[in-house]
Amino acid sequence: VPVDMVVNASLAAMARHGITRKADINIYHVASSMLNPLTLQNLFELFYQHFKLWPCVDANGKPITVQKLKIITSMEAFNHYLLREATTSSSLVEKVERPLKFMETAKYMAKCYEPFTSYHYRFDSGNTEKLWERMTEEEKKKFGFDRKSIDWKHYITNVHIPGLRRHVIMTKL
After folding, report:
1. Residue 43: inside a domain, yes or no?
2. Consecutive 10-residue runs of the chain (173 residues): their mean pLDDT?
3. Which InterPro entries match (predicted)?
4. Of 64, 110, 106, 65, whose CA–CA distance to 85 is shortest?
5. Residue 51 and residue 66: Cα distance in Å, rounded?
6. Does residue 5 share a domain with residue 34?
């Protein structure tokens, strides 16, 4: 979910509970998984389409070719994939020079991200929905955190990726 929606929902919740001063704890998940899900497969496809049309360039100014990403659904499958890649290099030199450290780092990173990539979580955003429903139309316009309204294709290709390119990768479109 775009960070501005998370901030806006947080502000709306603070405004709501600042008025009522109830002692109970309210938990708000500002998530789109139940209302307007973006799957990892769809995210990868949007990245692929973007970088195919507007590739980054290498140090020599040549476009970097992108390939469709394959989603690997388990650590076991990922380990088999790494092993297969390490042993099917085009030359013996590549096999010998392929660093074991890279494979260990890749396994470590995959393990760190496994909870976010291998499971099909759905976050209950019921409290956030109730908060939204109780707001007036004027408040909804001011706070603007309706996750149903997110156009994922537009957001990923026109906002998120250009932001990554400009501020993280440091390249221009």
Report:
1. no
2. 94 84 80 87 90 88 86 81 71 53 74 72 88 96 95 94 85 66
3. FAR, FAR_C
4. 106
5. 7
6. yes
Distance CA 78, CA 108 (A): 11
Residues 6+ apart with CB under 8 A from 110: 75, 78
Within this chain, do residues 110 and 143 fall inside the same structural domain, yes or no? no
Shared-domain flag, residues 158 and 126: yes
Calculate the alpha carbon distances from 146 to 5, 76, 128, 165 in Å. 8, 38, 9, 27
One-letter amino acid of 99: P
Q: How many domains does the chain have?
A: 2
> What is the domain range of residue 136?
1-38+122-172
Query: How far apart (Å, rounded) are the C-alpha atoms in residues 54 and 171?
Result: 11
Inside any domain, residue 68 = no
Amino acid at site 20: T
Please name the amino acid found at residue 27: I
Q: What is the DSSP letter of 54?
A: S
Alpha helices (H) in the chain, listed in sequence order: 3-20, 40-53, 75-87, 92-97, 100-117, 126-134, 137-143, 152-155, 161-164
